[in-house]
Design a protein that fits this description.
Layout: H1 2-32, H2 38-59, H3 66-87, H4 91-116
Keywords: Membrane, Transmembrane, Transmembrane helix
Transmembrane segments: 6-29, 41-62, 68-87, 94-117
Length: 127
Amino acid sequence: MEIIATVLGSIVTFVVGLLVGGLAIFVAAQLVVGKGDFRTAVWTAVFGALGWLVATLVVGWIPFHIGSILGTLLGLAVYLTVIAVQYDTDWVEAAAIAFVAWVSVLVARFFLAPLLGDWGVVGVPFV
């Protein structure tokens, strides 16, 4: 029974984090480029997180912190590419969407963490 509760808790945490990340991307895309819907934002969060994961795994094995630096840079490039493709924008607008999403999640976590505790966000890096 404890295993089921743990798995269920992990699934709920992932889904809530994904919805929060999707909401942040949705708000950012509306503010920056004025287009997109919530479904696109959630898929952007999913593909962005998976792309970041794959990019990090590909070069993460390189020693002396080079792998982590390259993984972060490559992951960021993949994340921005996902945003640019999903919203049909250039890299500058994609970076603006990512930045506004990041700031909106930081603000939300600042105000909600005392009430809800610390929670993760899927699809918005560095949070």
